[in-house]
Design a protein that fits this description.
2 strands, two-stranded antiparallel sheet, mainly alpha, 3 helices
Length: 102
């Protein structure tokens, strides 16, 4: 839902930059007393990377199909696109697409 105000690819890019800036600011805080984050497996990293790539491809295709000023569809619609929603036989979950969009 972080991107519901983004009505085009430029708006999506701007919101992504804002969210990245927020995450970078939070990462500079002192997190003493918390459990360290486990290192993800290589397969998990590759799957996450594939979900981001699929989302970006879907957004590009949507941008090509949209008329000027028309709102972009919900990014969760990428899950229903059989051409982009599967990586090595495993379908992306809504959580993975949500994380990729964040």
């Amino acid at each position: 839902m972080l991107y519901e105000r983004a009505t085009d690819l430029g708006g999506y890019g701007s919101e992504t930059c804002r969210q990245l800036h927020r995450v970078l600011q939070e990462s500079n805080r002192d997190f003493t007393g918390r459990e360290p984050t486990p290192v993800p497996s290589l397969d998990a990293v590759l799957h996450l990377s594939a979900s981001r790539t699929a989302l970006l491809r879907w957004l590009w295709h949507q941008n090509q199909q949209q008329g000027a000023g028309e709102p972009m569809p919900n990014v969760m619609d990428v899950v229903s696109d059989d051409r982009l929603s599967v990586d090595q036989g495993v379908r992306f979950t809504e959580g993975e697409i949500d994380r990729a969009s964040a």
